[in-house]
Design a protein that fits this description.
Mean pLDDT: 90
CATH superfamily: Flavodoxin domain
Order of helices and strands: EHEHHEHEHEH
CATH topology: Rossmann fold
Structural class: alpha/beta
Distance between the termini: 9 Å
CATH class: Alpha Beta
Number of strands: 5
Helix content: 25-40%
Length: 175
């Protein structure tokens, strides 16, 4: 049994969230403990680069991240889900990752999965788009990137295919 934290950065209940739902369903069926964090539902401030977290270990900001840090610390698996906007991860996910800085020396033992949905139908485009996300994660010490789940050619929330959803579910089932 593993502790899995899924961080969904979509601001709507669209394709990347549907992929998260299936990944989560697979994880739960495997008897894992799953914590889902929908960024749209939390209060999340921008990092102010004060470095207090680096010097003292805690973030000075009083928002929902302070209650999320323990879940991330205890997780065996982290899943980062994002729609691709203008060739990059969502701004909400980038803000969340920036706010993970207080944990940056405590993350190297975690397995990481990425869920990316995009209106493009070209996996090469999505791979290029996800490079910035991977770079940010590696800078935090999250170097054990296991797999990327693709939701390509998905512009509207009903565009996701059964095959794509099945892939997310089966991957969650392997955790």
């Amino acid at each position: 049994m593993k502790k899995v934290v899924i961080i969904s950065s979509s601001m709507r209940k669209g394709n990347s969230n549907k992929l998260c739902d299936e990944f989560e369903r697979g994880c739960i069926e495997r008897a894992n403990i799953v914590k889902r964090i929908n960024i749209r539902d939390i209060k999340l401030n921008f990092c102010i680069a004060c470095r207090d977290c680096y010097n003292y270990g805690d973030c000075v900001q009083k928002d929902d991240m302070n209650s999320i840090y323990p879940y991330i610390k205890e997780a065996d698996v982290l899943v980062f889900a994002t729609p691709i906007y203008f060739g990059e991860m969502s701004g909400q996910l980038k803000t969340f990752i920036d706010r993970m800085y207080p944990l940056y020396t405590n993350l190297d033992d975690k397995d990481v999965y990425i869920i990316a949905s995009c209106y493009q139908d070209d996996k090469k485009f999505i791979d290029e788009s996800v490079k910035g996300l991977i770079r940010s994660l590696k800078n935090l010490g999250l170097t054990n990137i296991k797999q990327i789940v693709y939701g390509e050619n998905t512009d509207e929330s009903n565009d996701i295919t059964g095959e794509q959803l099945s892939q997310a579910y089966l991957l969650g089932l392997k955790i």
